[in-house]
Design brief:
The structure holds two protein chains of two kinds.
Chain A lengths: L2 H4 L13 H18 L7 E6 L1 H9 L10 H16 L7 E4 L4 E6 L4 H21 L1 H6 L5 H19 L1 H13 L16 H18 L2 H4 L4 H17 L7 H8 L5 H22 L1 H21 L5 H14 L15 H17 L3 H6 L9 H11 L2 H8 L2 H7 L2 E6 L4 E7 L4 H12 L2 H4 L2 E6 L8 E7 L7 H15 L3 E7 L1
Parallel strand pairs in A: 1-3, 7-8
Antiparallel strand pairs in A: 2-3, 4-5, 6-7
Chain B lengths: L1 E5 L9 H10 L1 H14 L9 E6 L16 E6 L10 E3 L22 E6 L1 H10 L5 H8 L4 E9 L9 H14 L5 H16 L5 H23 L10 E8 L4 E9 L6 H21 L2 E9 L3 E4 L1 H6 L8 H15 L6 E8 L7 H16 L2 E7 L16 H12 L3 E6 L6 H14 L1
Parallel strand pairs in B: 8-9, 8-11, 11-12, 12-13
Antiparallel strand pairs in B: 2-5, 6-7, 9-10
Helix pairs in contact in B: 6-7, 10-11, 11-12
The chains are: A mainly alpha, B alpha/beta.
Chain lengths: 498, 437
């Protein structure tokens, strides 16, 4: 860009103060870049200016503008209020909600430069990701979420009126304890149509006729056991077991719950499901938003629409957010998802535009293709954190972060370094890091395996251990107590090695 | 297309309902914290907010989660400086130290205690809870200070109801004089002159010229009158009111208590609540309140608050010593002409035989004449209060005080066994003052 072109336009704003007029002008300028240059696809924006008290309110109700009432939200409110007042915690500059229109909250304290950054980040970066990523498209209903929350709030208030607050609180407490175990991880199979069913039966019969062998029938005692086996199998089939969505199972099959209690569980389950994609795409979502704001801000600055002062303030905040402390730094608390996501996406851009030999070997498809916009759009749409790292973490990024993988055996008094950023270690690090971002392996895998509704009704759960990692005893017992309250009969949890 | 919405004026306390639910859930802990605070604090600052610490067990939100101390796991960390593949790094000694690159699934074991701050209102609500105060009184007590509008000059803006007519008209007059606005009399005089001239049937040339000049003058005068308004927005003045806190006088509150061995922890706690409530009431009415503590056994002395509540004395019980000590202090330091004197006495009702007469004399002749109010509580056993329901029965001191109460309307007395019994002692005091307010 030449000097003459750079200064072609005058800055959109000067100074730190913002007005709604300036906000609107800046929003439109950002939208122009987002649409024309990056070809982003986003929901209509609804940007709401709120005060710091309201931001604290939003914090306590998991970021949603309306939420049913529960004491735990009050607890979180007090917690964040306390640390905010003590100065131990700053407030977020914005909160963005996956809804259509996409609502983002911006703090009134932000300077105009910050509002610009926040809009580019949340109202376009996150917004695009919400609209295009397959997990959000598949699992969340952006257009309906606010209506649903409104309904949920009203329904639970009605329940409190009808059945007393403490009865509702009991169900909510128990439901919240099982919230992480209240999501579907895979699309459920559609029930077959009648025609498919008949076709399958015909095939099965044909197979059985073919496989008939009278030799089997002379073996002693098989008939009896196979009959019970068949019964159990039938029972499990009817209850769709095994079932990993505990809340769903309780909602449908618990022998003791009232209809309104089932509906409350359903509400909790739906909210858990709504947030599940955000857990799975933390790194990508933030990376996408950071990449988008960085690109937009730079473009605006090149066009002369942002003054140098504003640009410096924005960059200052940008680098603060993207700071990755070393492992021996007291501030270290794991890999910063903002930093890694942004670095990986920048690296994809570099690989497309300016690849090295190494990149050609690792990413033959995209290296040198110069088509980074499409590669990124593809990645944003079709990956989640785990698969994104597995696919796109490049040696250059691993080197830059000076990553190393540790293997930690609880019985050993030491950690073993299983890989560093060298030729041998790249794959180890990439695999380990991908696994660390797989929500399914971070959260305990617990499923309902059997229950005899006509017998003792004992609910049998199974915890599938990975690498010998057990459950935290205290938390497990407390959660099981909640589970028993919802089930009404005994609950047994056994751990099996995968 | 983006929409902008200004939400800053929306109601703020969206999570108030959640906060209430939380407080309800931890009620027992909060109540205990409040009771402890009342016991430990000085009377004068009983009505502050309070830090409450709650063991996290009662408000835990359990979920299934991996234990941090079992099995095998892998992490990736950043910032490698000297490690090579195959190196062994010693684990830090404490399992939670986490410095050695522990990341990922280690969620931590949760905090042990939960600490939050109770607001002043919430604190007082809980404090009042088992005292069974009427709501009107509770609200009155929570109000920190009362303000009244006072005239504070004039302002150029305000509501039409507050227009100050005199000031406005004076300004208008001054402006009209300064700008030489012609008044109606001048106009009338001109018109009369013109009328007279026009009435002349055959005017001379001089007269005709004069008439033309007069017409010009009238037109100019009328124009000036139009242009220079009679009352201009500039002239308008409004009365300005300032909200000033009510001036309140000085008061002194005497706390008299029997500290002989028969007063145990329970009795002292009840007595303290009694003093705190009186102090809360007084602090609403007076800017500064002196607290004087007089304790007595068989002799009385002035002590500080800590000694008053916490140290023990042995000896007999002679109530009149406390009263005469209080009377001496009043004479010495708090002349009734300058100070409002309130006295609160707590005792278990025991007195040296024959001394009660002396008490009555002291009260009649001296104290009741200079006191605004004298409140006496007899702290009795919860088991006893059942058969002490007849006001006339009781120990010697009680019977004698009954005589005082009959004579002086500003003397209140009551037997208390529970916190709920305290308020009725002040009922009259509160009823009278809230009616006034």
């Amino acid at each position: 860009m030449t000097q003459a072109a750079r200064k072609s336009a005058s800055p959109l704003f000067e100074g730190a103060d913002w007005t709604f007029d300036t906000l609107r002008r800046v929003h439109d300028a950002i939208e122009m870049v987002a649409r024309k240059d990056l070809a982003l696809d986003f929901y209509t924006n609804q940007i709401e200016i709120i005060s710091s008290e309201q931001m604290l309110d939003a914090y306590s109700s998991i970021g949603m503008p309306l939420m049913y009432r529960h004491w735990s939200f009050g607890k979180h409110f007090m917690q964040s209020e306390r640390s905010y007042r003590k100065g131990a915690m700053g407030l977020a500059y914005e909160i963005v909600i996956n809804s259509d229109p996409c609502i983002s909250y911006c703090m009134e304290e932000n300077s105009m430069a910050m509002q610009t950054l926040v809009m580019a980040h949340a109202a376009f970066g996150h917004n695009h990701f919400f609209k295009t990523n397959h997990l959000f498209r598949q699992w969340t209903d952006a257009a309906g979420i606010l209506d649903y929350l409104e309904y949920a709030r009203g329904y639970i208030a009605d329940c409190e009126e009808a059945h007393g607050p403490s009865a509702v609180e009991d169900i909510l407490d128990a439901g919240h304890a099982l919230m992480p175990n209240g999501v579907f991880r895979y699309r459920r199979k559609q029930p077959p149509s009648l025609r498919q069913e008949q076709e399958r039966q015909r095939e099965r019969r044909a197979h059985e006729e073919q496989a008939v062998s009278y030799l089997w029938s002379i073996l002693p005692d098989t008939a009896h056991t196979s009959k019970t086996d068949a019964q159990i199998r039938e029972r499990k089939r009817e209850l769709h077991l095994p079932e990993e969505n505990l809340l769903y199972f309780l909602e449908h099959y618990s022998p003791v719950l009232q209809p309104w209690q089932r509906e409350v569980l359903r509400i909790i389950r739906n909210i858990a499901q709504y947030f599940y994609p955000q857990k799975q795409t933390k790194l990508m979502n933030e990376g996408c938003a950071c990449f988008v704001h960085f690109h937009i801000i730079n473009t605006l600055h090149e066009q002369g629409l942002l003054s140098d002062g504003a640009m410096l303030e924005i960059l200052h905040n940008h680098t603060n957010v993207l700071f990755q402390p070393d492992f021996d730094d007291p501030r270290f608390s794991g890999i910063n998802p903002y930093a890694l996501g942004f670095a990986m996406m920048q690296d994809i851009q570099r690989i497309c535009n300016d690849p090295r030999e190494e990149d050609r070997a690792w990413f033959p498809d995209i290296a040198g293709s110069r088509d980074w916009k499409n590669v990124l759009a593809e990645a944003w749409a079709n990956y989640r954190d785990e698969s994104f790292i597995q696919q796109f973490l490049s040696p250059a990024v691993m080197r830059r972060f000076r990553m190393f993988a540790l293997s930690d055996n609880a019985d050993d008094p030491f950690y073993l370094v299983s890989g560093i950023h060298d030729e041998r270690g790249f794959h180890v690090i990439r695999d380990t890091l991908a696994q660390n971002h797989d929500v399914a392996s971070l959260e305990p895998h617990i499923e309902v395996v059997d229950v005899d509704l006509l017998g003792d009704r004992c609910l049998k759960l199974q915890h599938v251990k990975r690498n010998g990692v057990t459950l935290d005893d205290e938390q497990r017992d407390a959660t099981l107590a909640h589970l028993e309250r919802l089930w009404g009969y005994d609950v047994a949890l056994e751990a099996v090695e995968s | 297309m983006g929409h902008f919405v200004d939400r800053r004026l929306n109601p703020k306390d969206k999570s108030l309902g959640n906060r209430r639910r939380f407080l309800k859930r931890v009620r027992t802990h909060v109540k205990k914290a409040v009771d402890d605070a009342v016991r430990e604090r000085a009377i004068a600052d009983a009505d502050r907010g309070e830090n409450v610490v709650i063991p996290s067990g009662s408000i835990a939100e359990p979920i299934f989660r991996h234990s941090a101390t079992s099995g095998h796991r892998d992490h990736v960390s950043s910032g490698n400086k000297s490690f090579n593949t195959g190196d062994r790094i010693k684990k830090p000694a404490t399992k939670e130290a986490g410095g050695g690159g522990k990341t990922g699934s280690n969620e931590g074991s949760g905090e042990d205690e939960f600490l939050f701050v109770l607001s002043r209102d919430e604190f007082l609500d809980l404090f009042f809870e088992d005292m069974e105060l009427p709501n009107l009184v509770k609200r009155g007590l929570k109000q920190i200070e009362m303000k009244k509008p006072h005239r504070a000059g004039f302002s150029v803006s305000g509501s039409p109801a507050n227009i100050n007519v005199t000031r406005t008209m004076r300004n208008a007059l001054g402006r009209r004089l300064a700008l030489k606005r012609p008044n109606d009399q001048e106009v009338r005089a001109l018109r009369a002159e013109i009328f007279a001239l026009e009435a002349v049937s055959s005017p001379t040339a001089k007269q005709r010229k004069q008439l033309a000049a007069l017409h010009g003058l009238l037109e100019e005068t009328l124009r000036r009158q139009r242009v220079i308004a009679y009352i201009d927005p500039l002239d308008v003045r409004y009365n300005y009111f300032e909200h000033r806190p009510e001036p309140r006088e000085k008061a002194v509150m005497f706390c008299l208590m029997d500290v002989s061995a028969s007063m145990g922890e329970r009795e002292k706690d009840l007595a303290k609540r009694f003093f705190v409530l009186l102090h809360l009431f007084l602090s609403r009415r007076y800017t500064s309140i002196d607290l004087v503590f007089v304790r007595h056994t068989h002799n009385a002395q002035e002590v500080d608050e800590d000694t008053f509540f916490h140290s023990r004395e042995t000896g007999g019980t002679v109530v009149s010593t406390a009263l005469s000590e209080a009377a001496r202090l009043v004479d010495e330091r708090y002349p009734p002409s300058e100070c409002n004197i309130y006295m609160a006495q707590a005792s278990d009702g025991e007195n040296f035989s024959g001394d009660s007469d002396k008490c009555v004399r002291l009260l009649d002749d001296h104290l009741m004449r200079c006191c605004q109010y004298f409140a006496y509580v007899e702290i009795v056993d919860e088991a006893e209060i059942g058969f002490l329901n007849n006001e006339d029965n009781g120990v010697e001191l009680w019977r004698h005080y009954r005589r005082v109460a009959e004579k002086w309307p500003n003397f209140a007395m009551k037997r208390i066994a529970r916190p709920a019994d305290i308020y009725p002692v002040f009922r009259e005091l509160f009823a009278k003052k809230t009616a006034e307010a």
